[in-house]
From TrEMBL, chain A:
The keyword Cell membrane applies. It is found in: Cell membrane. Belongs to the binding-protein-dependent transport system permease family. CysTW subfamily. It comes from the Bacteria. Coiled coil: none annotated. This is Polyamine ABC transporter permease. The chain crosses the membrane at residues 12-34, 61-92, 104-124, 152-174, 195-220, 251-272. It holds the Pfam family BPD_transp_1. One of its GO terms (biological process) is transmembrane transport. Residues 66-272 form the ABC transmembrane type-1 domain. Keywords: Cell membrane, Membrane, Transmembrane, Transmembrane helix, Transport.
Automatic annotation (TrEMBL), chain B:
Keywords: Cell inner membrane, Cell membrane, Membrane, Transmembrane, Transmembrane helix, Transport. The chain crosses the membrane at residues 12-34, 69-91, 103-124, 233-253. It is found in: Cell inner membrane; Cell membrane. This is Polyamine ABC transporter permease. Belongs to the binding-protein-dependent transport system permease family. GO terms for cellular component: plasma membrane. It comes from the Bacteria. It comes from Gluconobacter cerinus. It holds the Pfam family BPD_transp_1. One of its GO terms (biological process) is transmembrane transport.
TrEMBL record, chain C:
Belongs to the ABC transporter superfamily. The keyword Transport applies. It comes from the Bacteria. GO terms for cellular component: ATP-binding cassette (ABC) transporter complex. The lineage of its organism: Bacteria, Pseudomonadati, Pseudomonadota, Alphaproteobacteria, Acetobacterales. GO terms for molecular function: ABC-type transporter activity; ATP binding; ATP hydrolysis activity. The keyword Transport applies. Keywords: ATP-binding, Nucleotide-binding, Transport. Pfam families: ABC_tran (PF00005), TOBE_2 (PF08402). It comes from Gluconobacter cerinus. This is ABC transporter ATP-binding protein. SMART domains: AAA. Residues 11-243 form the ABC transporter domain.
Length: 283, 265, 368
């Protein structure tokens, strides 16, 4: 016999879920709908209008910004995932007693403030920062240059900030893989590189894809890092949205930019799912 | 054999370097926080705790700290209560649309914070909640609720059903079995849910940037505003304190149910 | 150890020892044995006895703390995994999910650079040998348990291994399939003349498939011998109780006509060869007969009868000792609980165990 919640009448379950649904409707669903509504607000009158979108897509600057956003996102993926893969591999297969601590150490930065980590990169890349001081001391540079401003600094900091996400998604895939597969491959005569190339890498593809998607979507929607490290020279959708809402105060246009970003988000998630399905049906 | 050892060492060196890269900003901030010069440079000229003392006497930072703790605490408590109640319904309930609701409760995780931030700003403005504590708490519930719901759900799913049945058969009322059996069994997940929600709220900057900044200033916001114009060791010391404050919940979570599972690996 | 013969040892393990970091005791403790070419060895023991660790040490999957491994006269202790040329069928099969059946089988050939006609020919041979015809392009997830098992075996055989290792290969199979597959594996091994090591915790499986059996407990090799050796001449209580059912009697040899059994008293059983001290004697339950006879050894009270169709199993209390007695269904008059019965057996029905083992070892492993 089953006692407890399952036996309660269904209206009680409805009551239990109601506060959550209400909270999400107020703080999540409604703001998104209102955002969409605002993006369709005309300059005059009360009817809906697409003029913000028309303006956005007619202006070549915003096409350039969208291209830039996607480029930075892809750049982050291309650097972050290859850095995350070895760490995840190491953590998944390590027999060391430090494994738990090292795993926590790789994930913990995810729970520290992005602002602080960006600030850390400003110190490292700044005019009097670690890199400049070292380069000048080593005689490679005659005098310090600005490294902390612009796309380079933005990508470096973003890669570091997104690395834990990459590690965690690859790690969770790898730890589902049976370590005996690699042992079997070795016993069958495969050398270390062959094991990696013929067994580990093909089996890791879904994990690498999840990591890529996650890093990409987080990169294209990040604001703090491009804002602080871009030095006003990195224009991505997120910084444009921020400028439109806080400086230009053009809310319909900010709304249109946000919806555009969301659309790209959706497109990439859908694309990812299509590719993943194909990968899984082939392997 | 020799070749083998070289390969191993190279591999460990590579891992070590990636770790160094990952932890570099936090390490650097820690080192710089002991500096005394008013401008930011590396390496520090001297080591002292003077900038820590300055931080602790800076009313702006102290106020931001209070605000952050208040908002983090309130939104985490609300998120935990609402999330736990929803988790029970989502795991144990039998009603139409349960699957879609489960998905619905996780969906804010997939939402770019900046889009949500703009939406929240546009919603809170006509309500007069911009730049208020209430507004920030509401906003942070939306980003923390998926995590509390998911963590508590996984705890409920792991619960041994027979424990409650044993409690009921031995004469406990539903309420007693809930208080004396279910809640204690869920304690690690409840604490983890609370702490994760607190951390996400405590470290959140994007939404705060849009909906606050003048009257209600959180710590990340204070740091953000400060480093836009000035970078001196004081902000490094503040950053170190904020990271240390985050470290305590992180360690507790790692001990309780392990960090990887808590953030969803 | 194994009897030395004119044929030289093909596989030789000496002094193999392994203690895992942080473990309280050694998982494998000073194990030595030799095996001739073409023989099938089973490693038998309860779970946790170290048999799988021993197998993995031979395969090179688990590091060896000390000891030597020779295969065909070559020192292999330090040989890296990929150069050992050993075939292994894992308990989980460890088939590559991203490769087809054929590509799984040819994996060992691919990484050795064996391509084209030769690879195709060998795969085709194994496919037909393993009754996998028509499944070559299937994915692993589309196969049944039995089919997966055959793919795993084919993959291990494709590299023409010096030693074939099977780690509980039948454990994940349906019970009905096990006997057939076991017979197939044995027939194949004999036909191809492969030297093989087979790990199992099932004594029937171990005895029926092997040329040699190594019984292990707590990391130590308890006995190494043919299946018949193990059953009729176990060296200690552990082996005796793990292989078949058994009664143990602690006894002192008095003279060529009598022994003195602890808890029972004097038994008129004539051992021509005597022994000093107290020794453990083994008598299998089916070697004890009930009923009147001139050779009656002792009398006892039936405490319990279990009827299982083919036979009756009695628990008979004799003095302070309870003996298990098995009688065929058609053998003699059935006794009831409470009956006083005569028990009889001869010296040839008993075997004297060489070494009494510590109590810790003998307890906790009831005969199965």
């Amino acid at each position: 016999m089953r006692v407890s919640v399952r036996k309660q009448p269904s209206w009680l379950q409805a009551l239990l879920i109601l506060p959550g649904v209400a909270a999400l409707v107020v703080t999540f669903v409604f703001p998104l709908l209102w955002l969409a509504r605002t993006s369709l607000q005309p300059t005059t009158g009360h009817t809906l209008s697409l003029h913000a979108y028309v303006r956005l897509f007619e202006d070549s600057f915003y096409w350039w910004v969208i291209g830039r956003t996607i480029f930075i996102g892809l750049l982050c993926v291309v650097i972050t995932v290859p850095l995350a893969f070895p760490v995840a591999l190491f953590l998944a297969r390590s027999q060391s007693g430090w494994r738990g601590t090292l795993t926590a150490l790789a994930i913990a930065p995810l729970l520290t403030s992005t602002v602080i980590r960006t600030y850390g990169w400003m110190v490292i890349l700044g005019r009097h920062g670690l890199i400049n001081t070292t380069l000048v001391w080593a005689g490679i540079l005659a005098q310090p240059t600005r490294l902390d401003n612009g796309p380079f600094a933005t990508v470096v900091a973003l890669v570091e900030i997104l690395l834990p996400y990459g590690i965690i998604s690859i790690l969770s895939h790898l730890s589902r893989l049976d370590a005996e597969l690699e042992q079997a491959a070795s016993l069958l005569g495969a050398r270390r590189l062959q094991v990696f190339w013929h067994v580990l890498l093909p089996l890791s593809v879904p994990g690498l894809m999840t990591a890529s998607l996650l890093v990409f979507v987080l990169a294209i929607s990040s604001l703090v890092t491009p804002q602080l490290m871009g030095g006003g020279r990195v224009f991505v959708l997120a910084t444009e949205i921020f400028n439109q809402t806080t400086i230009s105060l053009d809310w319909p246009f900010a709304g249109a930019l946000s919806i555009t970003l969301l659309a790209f988000f959706g497109i990439f998630v859908a694309l990812y799912q299509r590719i993943l399905q194909r990968v899984e049906s082939q392997s | 054999m020799k070749h083998d050892r070289t390969v191993r060492m190279a591999w460990h060196l590579l891992i070590g370097l990636i770790y160094l890269f990952l932890l570099a900003p936090l390490i650097i901030v820690l080192i710089v926080s002991f500096d005394t010069r008013p401008y930011l440079s590396f390496p520090p000229a001297s080591f002292s705790l003077i900038s820590y003392a300055r931080v602790l006497h800076n009313p702006l930072f102290l106020q931001a700290g209070k605000t952050s703790l208040l908002i983090g605490g309130c939104s985490a408590v609300l998120s935990l209560i609402v999330g736990t109640s929803a988790a029970f319904a989502l795991v144990r309930g039998h009603f139409p649309g349960r699957q879609s609701l489960q998905w619905f409760f996780l969906s804010p995780m997939l939402m770019p914070h900046i889009v949500l931030a703009v939406g929240l700003m546009m919603t809170l403005q006509p309500l007069g909640l911009l730049d208020t504590l209430t507004g920030l708490i509401l906003a942070h519930i939306s980003i923390t609720l998926p995590y509390t719901t998911r963590i508590v759900s996984s705890g409920i799913a792991q619960l041994d059903r027979t424990l409650e049945e044993a409690a009921r058969i031995h004469g406990a009322s539903p309420w007693q079995s809930f208080c004396c059996v279910i809640l204690p069994a869920l304690r690690p997940h409840l604490i983890t849910g609370f702490l994760i929600a607190f951390l996400f709220s405590f470290d959140e900057a994007v939404i705060a940037l849009f909906i606050a900044g003048h009257r209600a200033v959180t710590l990340p916001l204070a740091i953000y505003q400060y480093i836009q114009f000035r970078t001196d060791p004081q902000v490094a010391s503040l950053s170190v304190l904020v990271v240390l404050l985050s470290l305590v919940p992180i360690i507790i979570i790692e001990r309780l149910i392990n960090l990887r599972r808590a953030v969803g690996g | 150890m194994a009897e030395t013969n004119s044929t030289p040892a093909y596989l030789s393990v000496s002094g193999f020892t392994r203690q895992f970091p942080g473990a309280e005791r050694r998982s494998v403790d000073d194990v030595s044995f030799t095996l001739k070419r073409g023989q099938m060895l089973t490693l038998l023991g309860p779970s946790g006895c170290g048999k799988t660790t021993l197998l993995r040490m031979i395969a090179g999957l688990t590091p060896v703390d000390s000891g030597q491994l020779h295969v065909a006269g070559r020192q292999m202790t330090e040989t890296p995994l990929h150069a050992r040329n050993m075939g292994m069928v894992f308990q989980s099969y460890a088939l590559f999910p991203h490769l087809s059946v054929a590509r799984n089988i040819s994996f060992g050939l691919d990484v050795r650079g064996i391509k084209g006609e030769e690879s195709r020919r060998r795969v085709a041979e194994l496919v037909s040998l393993m009754h996998l015809t028509g499944l070559e392009n299937r994915r692993i997830t589309e196969l049944s348990g039995g089919q997966r098992q055959r793919v795993a075996l084919a993959r291990a055989l494709a590299i023409e291994p010096d030693i074939l290792m099977l780690d509980e290969p039948l454990a994940n199979l349906d019970i009905r399939l096990r006997d057939t597959v076991r017979t197939e594996i044995r027939a194949l091994q004999q036909r191809l003349g492969i030297t093989a090591i087979f790990v199992t915790h099932d004594q029937d499986e171990a005895l029926s498939i092997a040329d040699q059996v190594a019984v292990m407990s707590e990391g130590r090799l308890q006995q190494f011998g043919t299946p018949a050796d193990l059953y009729t001449r176990p060296t200690n209580r552990f082996v005796a109780s793990f292989v078949g059912r058994s009664n143990f009697i602690e006894a002192v040899w008095v003279d060529s006509k009598r022994i003195h059994a602890e808890g029972i008293g004097t038994l008129f059983i004539g051992f021509s060869e005597g022994w000093k001290d107290r020794r453990t004697l083994l008598i299998r339950p089916h070697r004890i007969r009930l009923g009147n006879s001139l050779e009656t050894c002792c009398q006892g009270v039936v405490e319990n009868v279990v009827y299982t169709g083919e036979r009756r199993t009695y628990l008979v209390r004799v003095g302070y000792v309870t003996l298990t007695v098995e009688q065929q269904e058609d053998q003699g008059q059935p006794a009831q609980t409470g009956d006083i019965v005569d028990l009889h057996w001869q010296a040839s029905d008993m075997s004297v165990l060489q070494e009494p083992l510590s109590d810790a070892l003998t307890s906790g492993h009831p005969s199965s």
